[in-house]
Amino acid sequence: MLIGFLIKPVCGVPIKGASTKLQYCVLAIILVSSVSSQGVDKTRESETSGSDVVKATVAQIQNSRIFPNDNGFLRRLAFVESQDGTDLNTYRSDYHGGIWQVDEYDFNLTKRSSTAERLHPLINLRFKINWMNVQWEELRKPLYSALAVSLYLSTIAVPIPHISDINGQAAYWKEHYDTDDGSGTIEDFVEAVEDLKSEECKTSRLDIAFVVDGSGSIKPDHFRIAQDFISSIVRNFDIGHDGIRVGLIQYEDDPTVQFLLNQYTDTASLLAAIGRMVYSGGGTHTGDALTAMVTELFGSGKGARNEDDNVPRIAIVLSDGKSNDAVQEPAEAARAADITVFAIGIGGDVEHEELQDIANDPDERYLFEVQDFDVIDNIRSEISQGTCEETTEQGIAEKVNSTLNSASQLYLETDVPLSGKMTFSLTATRGEVTAYLSTQMRSPNEAFHQWSVVATEKNPMAQVFIDTTMQDGETRKKRQAADDDQLVLYGTVVNEEPTPAGTTDTTAASGTEAVFSVLIEEGDTRIITTTTEKPTEKLATTTASTSDLPPGMKISESGLSAGVVAGIAIAGCIVIFLVIAFVVVFLIKRRRSEKADPNLINRDRNVSTVSTMSAEMRRQSETTNVYDNGPNGATMASDAGASTSGGAVGTANGGMVGDLTNHLIKTGRMEKDANPRNENVYTFGKSTSRPNRSDNDDIYVVSEFNGKKTVAQDDVYEVTPIGQDDVYEVTEFP
Questions:
Q1: How far is residue 454's CA from residue 494's CA, in Å, rounded to a whole number?
Q2: CATH number at residue 312
Q3: Domain boundary among 168, 197, 226
Q4: Which of 71, 219, 356, 734 has the fewest CB atoms within 10 Å of its CB?
């Protein structure tokens, strides 16, 4: 319908100048096609797999706040059970537990347990899923599998062990969940989680400062464990002057800068510097250390990149006890300098409230506590991924310029303006980049996003208009000034060009590097250009709109590359050709039908209402429901009057009668003594109760009339209304 709407005013022109008009038609179809592209949610698609799918699924579960903090168990369980769904046995034909391998018995328990049933309304509200109607087979969809395991875990009275207690979680899994016929071991769980820790960091540009407690309460052995922990994190980073920079402060009574952010530009030299640190001992002044971190590591000319470079600034604070000075004000000063602070408390002497003052919100993302140094490495994966996926805050009308190495990503966030409407522009000056956007997931990816755009060197600028005023099919309530009500647009910009074979350093091949800029503006500021002289200046523009997707999901739009545009243009030409062919065939058939028997009743153009007839015609016809067959009106009128004496016309015989060029049409019930003057007789049959309508099964041909056989089946016609009470179109009845 939408394509027809656009084609009609653009393409409905004389054939003269058809080549130019064809171009306009193709353009119209291209624009419509771009609108039909949709946001992606692979978590609701059957048999999808991979880390992006699992991360998107876990993020939705966590963001729903239906279930308590699972201490990282849900993410780990996906990898332990099915390698994030990539194990070949995940989707076997006779088992439907999905990525989390939920047994049918456990699934049924999610419907029978009163504890689980209390959560069903929340699932229906948040995900629009009526859990009592869900079948086990539907767990082949990742979101359904994750909801099932979360509901099942809610029925277990024993809490999930802390995120740092991998052995405890392994024992919990073995006792309450092992689905591999009981053959899994605690060692299997631990080994899988260790593999998950080594998940690579895909961010290519960060400034990270470690602030390490070296006070007397930390023993030398524990300090060495802290050094190993820091080393294990930075091994996953792409260290370099234009990549990830790392600086470090050790503190006790006084802070000491161990090395600046720009001091070491390769992984080997950085690891060596971490290993050379000497335990100092002394008091605990965490507040002073935070102040030194802001001024000595992130201060102007100290090795950090400028704020205008839009590189995320991150601090990771490790402490084992209560500080002897205030921490809240220095921590707020760090946040004012756009530094995101992670806090790690080690041991029983740490005050939880003090860690809350140090860390950013929310606690589940930025605050970690472990019982002792021996288990600190168990949170390495969460710290590493949390650091790698930290966002760069971008303001409205602020332009961000950036560079991405091969297979790397940049994470952005922008506060949505009160109008709820924005234009996202992505411009590539080198390479090819894709931006995934969402207001529902902090790190949108290929598996889950509401909008997406692609920019390339050949098609350098891509734009999408984002309208967030409609969510879950209802008008979004106006947001209040409180931060908790602030809607945020998150973006992930990806250079998906792989690193060349045989290359381990992602910076080695400049040919895979992508250079781009991002601009977010309030309102609809899209640009449409028709310039054809310079192909590289062509602009892909799209309009986002709502789609029939999961709650809150919007249609995704992307800039079209040259190949995609060409494909759509060809498809548009094919559609136009088929439409023209259909019309031509229809007209030919109609013309042949009219030539075959000139006495057949003309359709549409020669059918008119009684209002076009003269008063004398209406008087002669004895009814207002007589139809005029155009040029034959006079004959019809006189014949109609003449037929009155024969009983073929008049209210006694049904009220609607007309002799149209010797083809008698009659509504109502036709009596056998009507005595028509020829053998072409048609009747509505059962239509006396509804004289202005007829269905196919209400049309009859009289097989014999006064002993005279009627015409063949080919001459049977149906009378159907065409929109006005007294206007009928005569069409051939098959």
A1: 10
A2: 3.40.50.410
A3: 197
A4: 734
Bridge partners (DSSP) of residue 211 are 249, 317
Give the C-alpha separation, 412 to 427, whole Å.
Answer: 15
| 3-state secondary structure at position 343 | strand
Distance CA 571, CA 379 (A): 52
Q: Do 262 and 382 share a domain, yes or no? A: yes
The single residue listed with the structure tokens 């979360």 is 150
Rounded CA gap, 661 and 730, in Å? 14
- Same domain, yes or no: 218 and 127: no
Q: Are residues 236 and 327 in the same domain?
A: yes
Going by DSSP bridges, is the β-strand pair 470-471/255-259 parallel, antiparallel, or unpaired?
Answer: unpaired
With contact defined as beta carbons under 8 Å apart, do 283 and 216 qualify? yes
The token duo for 338 is: 């756009």
Q: Kindly report the CA angle at 491 between 44 and 243, in degrees rounded to 5?
A: 120
Evaluate whether residue 654 is within a structural domain.
yes
The region of weakest confidence among 156-160, 195-199, 379-383 is 195-199
Largest CA distance in the chain: 125
Q: Residue 704 in contact with residue 710, Cβ under 8 Å? A: yes
Domain count across the chain? 5
Kindly write down the DSSP assignment for every residue of 457-510, as one continuous string: SSS-EEEEEEE-SEETTEEPPPP-SSGGG--EEEEEEEE-PPPPTT---TTS-G
Q: Taking a C-beta distance cutoff of 8 angstroms, is the pair 238, 507 a contact?
A: yes
- The segment with the largest mean pLDDT, out of 529-533, 569-573, 618-622, 685-689, is 569-573
User: Which is higher by pLDDT, 580 or 537?
Assistant: 580
Walk across the sheet containing 421-430 and list its strands.
399-404, 514-522, 421-430, 461-467, 539-543
Range of the domain at 17: 2-33+567-587
Contacts of 621 (CB under 8 A, 6+ apart): 610, 613, 637, 640, 641, 649, 657, 658
| Residue 489, token pair as written in the block | 């647009």
The single-letter DSSP state of residue 524 is: -
Strand locations in 125-262, DSSP E?
Answer: 206-213, 244-251, 255-259
Dist. CA 141–CA 361, nearest whole Å: 32
Residue 594 lies in a domain: no
At position 339, the amino acid (one-letter code) is: I
DSSP 445: B
Mean pLDDT, residues 329-338? 94
Would you state the structure tokens that stand for residue 283, as one six-digit string?
């008091």
CA distance to 64, 65, 131, 326, 468, per residue, from 126 (Å): 7, 10, 12, 41, 17
Report DSSP state, residue 29.
H
229 and 158 share one domain: no
Residue 378 sits in the same domain as residue 396? no
Could you tell me if residue 726 is inside a domain?
yes
* CA trace torsion 360, 365, 371, 376 (10° rounding): -100
Nearest to 49 by CA among 82, 95, 97: 82
* Confidence category of residue 181, pLDDT binned at 50, 70, 90: low
What's the rounded Cα separation, in Å, for the pair 231 and 224? 11
Residue 507 lies in a domain: no
Domain shared by 212 and 321, yes or no: yes
Cα 719 from Cα 695, distance rounded (Å)? 9
Quick check: pTM over 0.70?
A: no
Strand partners, 248: 210, 259
Give the strand pairing for 206-213 and 451-456: unpaired
* DSSP helix/strand/coil, 79: helix
Beta pairing, strands 704-705 & 700-701: unpaired
Residue with token string 């008008």: 475
Give the pair of three-digit tokens for residue 306. 């400028």
Residue found by looking up tokens 């992130």 in the block: 298
Write the pLDDT tens digit of every residue in 217-235: 888 888 999 999 999 889 8
